[in-house]
Specification:
The chain has about 450 residues and is of the alpha+beta class. The chain is built from nine helices and 26 strands.
Length: about 450
């Protein structure tokens, strides 16, 4: 080693500062679910010359910092957090005596002012998200909260894999102390909150503030959140481009007054044994929510509105035989504006979010995104391409092939949890090593991504 560098290393590592005289302090500022760790001052210590500093968030692994810039920590869960910060020498040893600080802080909802009320939401943006990415709203059910669906939906993992932002807005409190979306329940005759306008205005704010697409905005939700989706499809289809309702229903009053600005694709995921939003409907409103048609009648309504001329039905592979249910996919297609109206009928399913509890043959969050993805510009399923590209044989126990590939392409195969397990650019794809079950294959070509379901059978 060059003598100059040996001497320089010696001078740095044995710097003459007195550790007894060193002091430092840090602070944390919080906005929503983002925390910023800042250095306030160092005394008798120069970062880079005398050493650097470490921090640990919530007893996780330490992070080494070699400058004095702010550290921004995003997408923290709502709640209490602790961060420990301390100075170290060049060998990562803590100074003696220790110079450290333990800072406790809390993250909370982000806020948005709407019609004189302060509304809450959680926003999640994957790292390095490209400009003009899609935005998906995920709405909680009646008496639930945004943090609940944030936790159980797993939508953040889907967003990380497929590249979109997620917003988990929070309903307001009704007279019973329950959070809700104002869809016009029979027991809410005096509720006046305008949730449609709130979601429209919030989507506009997020799109502009985070450089997201103003066109590719979608909504999915559980129960009351899914019902809010139907209301958006009727009253805010100029903003929301697609809706997926999980265990929701469409109130008869909403159906009777529905007058959409434009028609959009809709998917309902619903258990036939749902004891809250009854699959066969409640035309007399005896359940207390208000009158609503059956789920098949709701799908038929949207299919007729979209002038769909073709129908298909298929059983999705019953990959989990212990959950007491299976899924039938009913697809209405060849519709106006290339929309499609789908029903995932979960036979034997209850009031569930499949993939989180109840049925485990499908992942509701992933299915919602794949449904939305069909409508998105360069990432959408081109009708000619979907007819051109065929994956066969499907199901298969040994290999699959992609037909009519004439251009440069690549494929990626994912588990339903979004984990990539195989990729390449060849046409004959062996899958014998995969466990039996359902997977998603992405075919990527000419700036398009086509997603298809494949089944590995015994």
């Amino acid at each position: 080693m060059n003598k100059f560098y040996v001497l320089l290393f010696f001078l740095i590592s044995s710097s003459s500062f007195s550790q007894d005289e060193v002091s430092a302090d840090w602070s944390v500022s919080v906005e929503g679910t983002t925390a910023t760790l800042s250095i306030n001052n160092f005394n008798n210590f120069t970062v880079g010359l005398d050493g650097h500093w470490h921090y640990i968030l919530n007893n996780e692994e330490y992070v080494a910092v070699h400058d004095i810039n702010d550290v921004v920590i995003t997408n923290l869960p709502i709640g209490n957090h602790t961060i420990t910060v301390w100075l170290v020498d060049h060998m990562h040893n803590a100074l003696d005596p220790a110079v450290e600080e333990v800072i406790s802080f809390s993250t909370d909802y982000s806020t948005f002012n709407h019609q004189g009320d302060v509304r809450d939401y959680i926003f999640y943006e994957p790292e390095n998200l490209p400009a003009d990415a899609a935005l998906v709203f995920v709405l909680h059910g009646y008496s639930s909260d945004a943090t609940n669906i944030y936790d159980y939906s797993g939508m953040n993992s889907v967003a990380e894999e497929y590249g979109f932002a997620v917003c988990y807005p929070r309903g307001t409190l009704d007279n019973y102390g329950n959070r809700f979306w104002n869809v016009g329940y029979e027991f809410h005759p005096n509720e006046t909150v305008d949730d449609v306008d709130f979601l429209v205005q919030l989507s506009s704010y997020l799109s502009a503030n985070y450089n997201l697409s103003s066109e590719n905005i979608f909504s999915t939700g559980m129960s009351n959140g899914g019902e809010m989706g139907y209301m958006l499809a009727c009253q805010a289809s100029d903003t929301f481009r697609g809706v997926v309702s999980v265990a929701g229903m469409m109130l008869q009053d909403i159906m009777d007054t529905c007058n959409p600005e434009r028609l959009i694709p809709i998917l309902e995921i619903h258990g036939t044994n749902d004891y809250i939003n009854i699959y066969n409907g409640d035309p007399n409103g005896s359940g207390g929510w208000g009158a609503y048609p059956s789920i098949p009648e709701t799908i038929e309504y949207w299919s007729n509105l979209n002038n769909c001329s073709s129908f298909s039905s298929e059983n999705i592979e019953n990959s989990n035989t212990s959950d007491g249910s299976y899924v039938v996919k009913e697809r209405n297609y060849d519709c106006q504006d290339e929309n499609e109206i789908w029903l995932y009928k979960v036979v034997g399913g209850d009031h569930d979010w499949p993939g989180a509890w109840g049925n485990f043959d499908i992942n509701s969050s992933l299915e919602a995104w794949l449904f939305f993805e069909q409508t998105i510009g360069s990432l959408s399923i081109d009708n000619n391409l979907i007819n051109e590209f065929k994956v066969y044989p499907n199901p298969s126990n040994s290999h699959i092939s992609i037909s009519n590939i004439t251009k440069n392409f690549k494929f990626e195969i994912y588990t339903l949890n979004g984990v990539i397990i195989k990729e390449g650019n060849y046409n004959d794809i062996p899958i014998s090593e995969l466990e039996n079950g359902i997977y998603i294959i992405k075919i990527i070509t000419d700036n398009r991504i086509i997603s298809k379901r494949i089944i590995k059978k015994p």
